[in-house]
C-alpha cells in the first residue's frame, strides 16, 4: 500500500516537473508546477510530517504560485511567448546535468542501501509534549520551534521583513 | 513501510534536483529559471524530511520550515528584480541581461 502510494506520488512529482520545464507557455508551466508541489506535499504526509505537508501546499501551491501568476500577468509577455525558448548550448547542459545526476544518484543510492524503516515506537519517541505524553506532529513541532529553535525563528522573521521591504523597493517605480 | 527505504526518497530528490538544474541551464525565460530554482529547493526539502523520518528525529522537519521561509523570501526578491529588469530593458530573455559583461 505504502509502496504503491510512493510510486504514484513520485510519478506525479517527476511528471509535473518535466512538463513544467518543457512546456512553452509560461502559464501552463505554472499549472504543472502546482501539480509537482502538491505531489511533494503528499510525499511529506506519507513521511508522517503532516505539518510540513500542509505548509508546503499553503506556501508553495498557494502563495508562491499566485505570486508567479501575478508577475506573468504584470509583465505582458505577448511576443516573448513565441521566441526561441532553448539556449544554443542546451545539449552540453543536459549532458552535464545527467553526469551530475549519475554521480549524486549513485552516491545517495549506494550510501543508504541498508537503512531500515523506523518502528512505531521509535516514531512515537520523537513526538513528545512538555509533560511527556505522546501528542501529534503539529503540537510537537510547535513546542520544539518555540523552545529549542526560538532564535532561528526570530532571525527568519527578520529575514522575511527584509525581503518584503526589498521586494517593494525593487518593484516600485524609481522617482 | 517495507520495501521503500531511505535510498528511494533520496534518489527521487536527486531526480527532481536534476530536472530543476536542467530548467535553470536550458530555458531562456527568466521567470521559468526562477520556477526551476523552486524545484531544486523542493528537492532539498524532500531530503530533509526523508532523513528526519528515517533517523527518526524531528530536527529535519524544523529545518525544512526555515528552508521554505527562505525560498519564499527568495521568490519575492527575485520577482521584484524581474519586474525592475522588465521595466528597464523590456525583455525577459536571460541572454539580453548582459550589461555587466566585460
Write a compact overview of the structure shown:
The complex is a heterodimer of chains A (175) and B (102). Chain A has helices spanning 2-22, 26-46, 50-74, 90-111, 120-126, 137-147, 150-171. With 175 residues, chain A is mainly alpha-helical.
CATH 2nd-level architecture of the largest domain in chain A = Up-down Bundle
- Report the sheet with the most strands of chain A, covering strand number, pairing sense and barrel closure: none
Element order, helices and strands of chain B?
HHH
Helix percent of chain B reads over 70%
What would your notes on this structure say?
The complex is a heterodimer of chains A (175) and B (102). Chain A is mainly α. Chain A folds into two domains: 1-83, Four Helix Bundle (Hemerythrin (Met), subunit A); 120-175, no CATH class. Chain A is built from seven helices and no strands. Chain A starts with a helix and ends with a helix. The N and C termini of chain B lie far apart (55 Å). The radius of gyration of chain B is 17 Å and the shape is elongated. Chain B has helices at 6-26, 30-54, 59-89. Chain B contains three helices and no strands. The model of chain B has no long low-confidence stretch (mean pLDDT 88). Chain B has 102 residues and is mostly helical.
Describe the protein's topology.
The complex is a heterodimer of chains A (about 180) and B (about 100).
Chain A: H1 2-22, H2 26-46, H3 50-74, H4 90-111, H5 120-126, H6 137-147, H7 150-171
Chain B: H1 6-26, H2 30-54, H3 59-89
Helix pairs in contact in B: 1-2, 2-3
